[in-house]
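Below is how a single chain appears once it has passed through the pipeline. First comes the sequence as given, then the structure the pipeline wrote out for it. We keep one example in the README because the format questions we get most often are answered faster by looking than by reading.
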Amino acid sequence: DSSELIAIYGRRRIGKTFLIRETFKKEMIFEVSGIPDGTYKQQISNFYNKILKSSKRLKNRKIPNDWLEAFSLLEEYISGIKSKKKKVIFIDELPWIHTPKSNFTSLFAHFWNDYCKKETI
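Resulting structure:
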């Protein structure tokens, strides 16, 4: 009845992503994977494009300028999903998304504490 945050880590190429996708394929509402060696703008653009692919109703939104706006867009997307079943958000390769000076981890923590912990997503 509450939101949970799960971190999975381990050696590369052992099936962590496969495990998550197979276990939660029916509940997965959003999935994004970091771009290896991607720039800040590329990571934001990738995140934005994944939201647009997941939600046609947000297609007229402009690309976020920063992670605060990106997480706000994700909140809007999640809030628009009316479902009683569990909703899973999968952020794969998170260290790649956290580029220097992006404040990704701080703003992700804010998103989690300010939105996710209050919701039963």
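Residues 30 and 89 are 5 Å apart (CA to CA).

See the next section for the split statistics.
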